[in-house]
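Operator note (shift B, R.M.): manual run for Hexosyltransferase requested after the automated queue skipped it. Running by hand, logging everything below so the morning shift can see what happened. Input copied straight from the record, untouched. If output looks odd, do not overwrite the archive copy; leave it for review.
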Amino acid sequence: PYAHRTAAPIHTPALAPRITAPPPRGTAHHSLRRTERASAARIQEPSAAAAMRAAGAAVALLFFFLLAVPGEAAAALPRFAEAPQYRNGEGCPAATAAGVCDPGLVHIAMTLDAHYLRGSMAAIYSLLKHASCPESLFFHFLAAAPGDGELRAALAASFPSLRFEIYPFRAEAVAGLISASVRAALEAPLNYARNHLADLLPPCVPRAIYLDSDVLAADDVRRLWETRLPAAAVVAAPEYCHANFSRYFTPAFWSDPALGARVFAGRRRPPCYFNTGVMVIDLRRWRAGNYRRRIERWMEIQKERRIYELGSLPPFLLVFAGEVEAVDLRWNQHGLGGDNVHGSCRPLHDGPVSLMHWSGKGKPWDRLDAGRPCPLDHTWKSYDLYIAGDASSAASPASGPALSAW
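Run finished. Output pasted below as returned.
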């Protein structure tokens, strides 16, 4: 029903009708500077005791600064152009006064982080551009806390009409549960924020589409939103049953008589691999079944005995594999980040494409900046709002949120 309905842009002055500078730093930064100056003045006292007191104060100040201002908040954000604005087409649900509880909304959840903000901006732009009812999209962003003020300002500057909310996610909620992974990027606490969606989003939100930061939509996301979830299903996602499922767990897992195949016995279907970067989640059923705690229990077992090598994916497989409602593969053409070992480019899978996913080690913005793009990176480039030449914005580091291993 949406094949011939396209949202019309309000204005299309290329990609940069207005360039926005990074917002001013918060008052906490100025307070810290005043404290630093006071500490420096005390160091000028002639006595050794005074010098020791000043040194102690400086150490305490540094410790407070590291706790209160995470690296992504302390560094200046990249600069982005303003995207064209899109309005609802004919047949879209009328807005109500219910706000986020409006039953006509399509809810999209993503993590938000300075390191991968460039990818998130492109993803948002692509979702709005291809939506038949862009004003009916509501974005829920999970961001490292504190420090979401600059992220909020950046979003509002590039997408003035965007309907969104930012939810602070505290690393300590998962810090004691994370195990070492094959890549440092997969150990970032924000990768595990998706486990807490049902706790953070308002109870009136019935379901959400969770998307990684390195995706690009090529179709109307409402089609994915309308995926039917039977009563027995909590999660819907594209499944890849041709993949070698056993490789996602260690030999110790498969050889343990209390684990292995016994874990998946009695499920609706044989377990298959699915990528957690694109999921439709029934939040009410998630809450009712306490699925966050089920996932965390497997993370605790992993700390006791190593049963997998990847990051946030295996606990999802342990809980949901064999119970996932299958979605057409067109909604997660994943693996475009390339081979994790050799970094080689990967083409699209056979079949139609509704969403492209640069899962894996390579990211299109990094490869474009390095002058070594893969062919499909040029498609991503057409949605890139990043203003090149900003000294504060180098290629993203090796750690960050919302990344899929495969």
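Quick read of the result: The mean pLDDT is 81. The radius of gyration is 23 Å.
Leaving this for review. - R.M.
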